[in-house]
């Protein structure tokens, strides 16, 4: 591991490897009276994870691999595996991270014990502690990073689901559908609207679609441009489109933005648009 105090470091590594079960039990006792760690109580898998970390660190320092990519990779893999377990069992990150101070406490006691036995000066003891501390930091980093990655994945999934819900092309008759838009339309949602509507219109083999704006709060430049492009693209596909729910404030905004919808039928209400559509009323 290092040329400084190699024997002490070797002894610590051997102790961790030999006493991994005892150290795991000690950790269990430390957490026993804290209700936040109920998920770890009498849990064979958690016990195995504890023993695995102590053994991995112990074996690594025995083989002088403390700063090697190989040992760091093993410890990060352990952190990812521990995080995956907590995620699957609904243990929140703030609670799960409370486990690591117990690892630090136990490692500190082991290091202190061996440094005292070998009569090492304080400087050397701190140096040795920093080496083990660095390894535990790697485990904590991988653990937290895995939680964060999973959180991002879940947010992206929720975002995707919300986008799908926000573009509900509703068939009302063979070849005819309504697209009711609700809420605020930012650039990203406007772009998704254009893409998804064209896909759904093709899937449903539409010949006519009513885009209802009655649920839209405001219209900005991005949305107006995407809406204009959507209408042009629909017409290129042979799909007639009309706009309903064009309230006075929305029409004023569109005029101020310099966007023209002269080439498309516009209606004050969805009911008017439906009545105007000859296929629907026939």
TrEMBL record:
InterPro entries: Bact_StressResp_Reg, STAS_dom, STAS_dom_sf. Keywords: Phosphoprotein. CDD domains: STAS_RsbR_RsbS_like. Signal peptide: none annotated. Residues 166-277 form the STAS domain. PANTHER family: RSBT ANTAGONIST PROTEIN RSBS-RELATED, RSBT CO-ANTAGONIST PROTEIN RSBRC. This is RsbT co-antagonist protein RsbR. It comes from Alteribacillus bidgolensis.
């Amino acid at each position: 591991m290092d040329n400084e105090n190699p024997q002490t470091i070797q002894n610590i590594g051997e102790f961790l490897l030999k006493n991994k079960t005892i150290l795991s039990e000690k950790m269990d006792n430390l957490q026993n009276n804290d209700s936040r760690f109920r998920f770890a109580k009498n849990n064979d898998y958690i016990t195995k994870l504890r023993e695995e970390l102590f053994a991995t660190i112990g074996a690594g320092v025995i083989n002088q691999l403390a700063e090697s990519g190989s040992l760091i990779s093993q410890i990060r893999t352990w952190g990812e595996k521990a995080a995956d377990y907590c995620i699957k069992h609904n243990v929140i990150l703030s609670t799960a991270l409370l486990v690591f101070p117990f690892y630090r406490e136990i490692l500190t006691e082991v290091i202190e014990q061996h440094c005292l036995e070998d009569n090492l000066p304080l400087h050397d003891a701190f140096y040795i502690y920093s080496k083990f501390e660095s390894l535990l930091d790697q485990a904590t980093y991988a653990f937290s990073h895995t939680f964060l990655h999973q959180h991002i994945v879940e947010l992206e999934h929720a975002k995707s689901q919300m986008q799908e819900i926000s573009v509900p092309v509703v068939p009302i008759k063979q070849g005819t559908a309504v697209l009711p838009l609700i809420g605020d339309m930012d650039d990203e949602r406007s772009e998704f609207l254009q893409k998804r509507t064209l896909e759904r219109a093709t899937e449903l083999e539409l010949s006519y679609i009513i885009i209802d704006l009655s649920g839209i709060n405001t219209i900005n430049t991005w949305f107006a441009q995407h809406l204009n492009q959507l209408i042009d693209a629909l017409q290129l596909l042979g799909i007639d489109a009309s706009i309903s729910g064009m309230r006075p404030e929305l029409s004023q905004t569109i005029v101020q933005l310099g966007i023209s919808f002269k080439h498309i039928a516009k209606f004050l209400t969805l009911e008017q648009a439906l009545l105007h559509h000859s296929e629907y009323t026939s």
